[in-house]
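Marked as duplicate of an earlier ticket. Keeping the data here for the record.
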Amino acid sequence: MAFVLAESLRFHVQRLPSGAGPDGGDRPVVVFLHGLVVDNLSSFYCPLAVPVARAGHEVVLYDLRGHGRSERPVAGYDSRTAVRDLFALLGALDLGRRPVHLVGNSYGGTLALHAALARPDLVAGLTLLEPPLGGAWVENMVDTLSAAALSLEDSPVPAELLTLRLRKAAHLTAIADDLLNRTTLIDDIAGSRTFTPADYARLHCPVLVVCGEHSELVPGARELARHAARVSLRILPGLGHDVLKENSGALREAVLAHLDATAVPAAPVAAARPRVGALVP
């Protein structure tokens, strides 16, 4: 485990070296972005991150601001700040001069798309797993998070879980309570800007979108595929929203095939931004 200082915050980061030796060294680094509140980098580790590293890609996983073991400030949970966190973190890891491939799950997919639109020079490709993209997702997400916040406020559940020696569940519940009731996360999500067809038309990197057949997010994925130039849409039959947990085998095959098909050498960025952040003990 390592902590990296970026944007004046400590981020929990894991790096996996390429399993292909020197031949994999000039491929884009694959960076994983997890979902909201109870999610963290561990959700990717076994299903995708280790297989991707073994297939020849250097991998970076990190807990988003306020999540997992990363520092939890009161504010800064909007997508613009999250994208700034991402590129500052890559700079701190000396990865700011090469385009990366972003893999985002759920809200992490939304952030990955924002990052590609903000810095197309630094994003070589996207893999979006169940990304919430449609216009209604902000309202639905805020309703869901607000209901969860009310249920957790002054709740005895974390203490009861500890009594039952369910430490992991108690820890995740406590993090969710902090994020939802003691930060600006819900308000920041409520202020999110939704994507437009013009946004999608500006995407020029290769994109894979994976959704479950029964997911309510499929229409948004189809809208992205209609307007962006290089999108492959993969619908996994019989599944709902959580494709990362429900069928990691089929998902792993789709992601590895996409990475292989788009793994051109990552040329250095000509005018890289200055390095921000540093490793901290």
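See parent ticket for discussion. Residues 53 and 139 are 37 Å apart (CA to CA).
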